[in-house]
Known about the structure:
By secondary structure, this protein is an alpha/beta fold. It is 38% helix and 28% strand.
Amino acid sequence: MTQTDLLNTKDLGEGVVELQLGRGPVNAWGADFLMAFAAMIGEMGQDTAVRAIILKSPFKVFSAGVDLKEAKAFDVEQQQAMVRGLNEAVLGLYSCPKPVVAAVGGAAIAGGLFFVLGSDVRVGYSKSAYGLAEVRVGVDFPVGPLEVAKAT
């Protein structure tokens, strides 16, 4: 099992690896989390021992997307880092050469829905919920996540 402050992996055997999103309590993203996720999914995609990836959250929420409390104070450089992180994380997930299963045991809302859409297989539970309210208010998404949403 590999562990960082943001992501945890667990070998489930026979080449199946669980990747847990660990930015509690709701997996709200910062640029650092997104870049770490992109790097880890890239490494797992190239690892010949990995045959499949299960993407999970240990929290009640699968992911709430961008950390809005953090984003309120972003300067231009931090905004650019967030857009880069969103593009790299979502496109890295979507293009991963290994099958990725999103095991969604809670809400996947806002940007968090893109981790579900970028996965190959989606498994929902009774407490799963999905939403992209930003569409109603005209929020622009980075090109990468937007293209993944169009493709799925």
